[in-house]
User: Fold this.
Amino acid sequence: MAWCERKRIGYIFGLAGNTVLLGRVSALAEDAALGRLSGEADKVRRYGEFRYAAKSWKTERRVIARVEAGPQSLPRRRPGCRQPLHRDQGRITRAQRSASGIRS
Assistant:
């Protein structure tokens, strides 16, 4: 990223998720999940933007987050229950596990 900035080259990178990023998008994730549950659409997306700096970065950078809730985004079972919630509900997606689909 620093090389691109020094050369004045625009860039888009995907960020690996962490607890700080998950915290920054938790409201978006909740809103998307509620939209999905209320029947807004089969796949509901929410977007957000914020400034962020990893410990290894010398400066903050603009991060654009995309959070997605769909049939494959919901847990398969309620905690403590052996029965699936619904037959077409999948696991929490990799994107959601890694900061709810954060993309920069």
Q: What stands out?
A: Residues 13-103 form one domain.
